[in-house]
Amino acid sequence: MKKVIVKLDDVKKSYGDKVIIPKLDLDVYEGEFLTLLGPSGCGKTTTLRMISGMENVSSGHIYLDGEDVTNVDATKREVNTVFQNYALFSHMTIEKNISYGLKIKKVPNDIITKKVKEMLELVQLQGYEKRKPSQLSGGEQQRVAIARALINEPKVLLLDEPLSALDFKLKKQMQIELKQLQKKLGITFIYVTHNQEEALTMSDRILVFRGGVIEQVGTPKELYLHPKTRFVADFIGDSNIFDGIITKISASSNTAEVTINDTVKAILPNKNYQEGLKISLMLRPENLKLVEKETSKNCIPVKIKENIYDGATSKVIAITNFGKELNITLDRDDKIYPVRSTLFVKWKMEDAVVLKGKEANEE
Amino acid sequence: MKNSNSIFKKITTIPLKFYAGILIFLPLLYIFILSFFRNDYYGGIIPDFTFDNYRMLIDVVYLKVFLQSFLIAFITTFICICISYPFCLIIKTKKETTQKLIMTFVMIPFLTNSLIRTYGWIVLLRKNGVINQFLMGTHLISSPLSLMYNYFGIVIGMVYTLLPFMILPLNSAVSKLDDSLLDASKDLGANRLQTFFKVVVPETLPGLFNGSLMVFIPAIGLFFISDILGGGKLMLLGNLIKNQFLTARNWPFGAAISITLIIITFIFVKLYKKIGGKMDDLGGGL
Question: Which band of pLDDT confidence, cut at 50, 70 and 90, is reported for residue A116?
């Protein structure tokens, strides 16, 4: 049984009449890399700020390492934050920035010097002691911000979109560094981002937020392969979503037939569906195949709209005969058809993910 | 292209150069030359080259005036800082429209002549003025306080007149201060006071210097406030200069004091630059 390091119990947050988080229960386990993922304004940063103590909860309780810290001031909580824009003190040297927390706690100078040295080694910035933040690159500043937080030996490190200001390549590199750092230190990281790719790369567990409510919690793999809702399917990775109705249940082969747009018939493994049930069917771009000849099931006629080559993969945008755009990822040796070719797209029955029914009616 | 551009620049800046030359540089040159002349008994000027005017300044009486002026300017600046920082930090937390509204209220007094506004303070501060009447009416005091015709009155007048010059540059620095810096400091365990002295002040230092200079230098020279609220009893540098020109009719001596004041001001500006202030922030290039 893993130890719960942060517990949010029936937490509610509102500003005046505006409810940001209606009700939130969350357990964060010791040593895990948890990502709060969601579009901007979904309450993920607010959640982080409530854990750090920057924001008060409107009701409910927050526990840190078993202790109720709901009314403990931010200055006294054993958590530290890495801010989105680094928030380094520009008038201080790197050394002074990193030692700030320890200085406030009146730690003896010789210990501070030693720990600052250790921290600089940890983030690979030896020799940067006397520089000012403005003399450092974005990635280096980010590492200073991490060192400044970690030197206080927090029980949990909170990261608020720390990589959003970095360029693509540096972002990739920092993702790996962060993940390695977390593994090495064994400290719990709670990471906030709106970037699904970042979340998938780094997290042990991802929590998808939507309008202040948890949409789904799971490992990156679970969320990608088995999204429960249309929102999660849409938000994590590329997806093709069809709305349909279960029209026939076949008990003998234990399958269900879905009719999409009154014409297309798709076959699914039956999971206690009933005829007439509205569902959404989700297919990842890599599970769709382009073929020249129509197959008997799970097949839709399409017309190629565009071919996109991005180096590692080739993507195709195709339009079905009922006007829906599909994203298709091709394998390396797949044939590339010219634009406006008329083809068929097919998929394997088990690759189709059925999303919660109530969501199907939303759009 | 570059050449024609520079010609264009030269032509368009002619009015400015004309203005600076005729209205600032020439009078200053006149004052400078004047400070080396002598005056006669009728207020006339005798063009004899002499250092006497400057020598006269090194006198206990005048040194006291200098000291007094600097003390008042220093106290005024300090009080302005003490008022402006909390003010700026509080309005920083307000909505943008509220911020603009409050800053407009800071600016509005500029629309009225500062001499008239200073007279307004007499109504409040004098022996049977509003403040004393209120305090006596509520029996907080039994006899009226002397709120004017002393240092207190002068400092109140100075702070009142010069406060916007502190608030404006300081507010521009404080409003640019990233909230996340304050959050970071809090996150690292610093209380409000620690955050203020370790983060807010150092991060807004240019604004603070800027405002201090904008308050300190006029505070040395303002003469009407000490005339009105000091009752003319306290002699400040501004009064001394004014008296030499208008009352004592010793223009060369007045010129010498002015030049000394200009030099001292220059030293302060140089110091400001040395600490790292930008002249642009003061609204001009030197």
Answer: very high
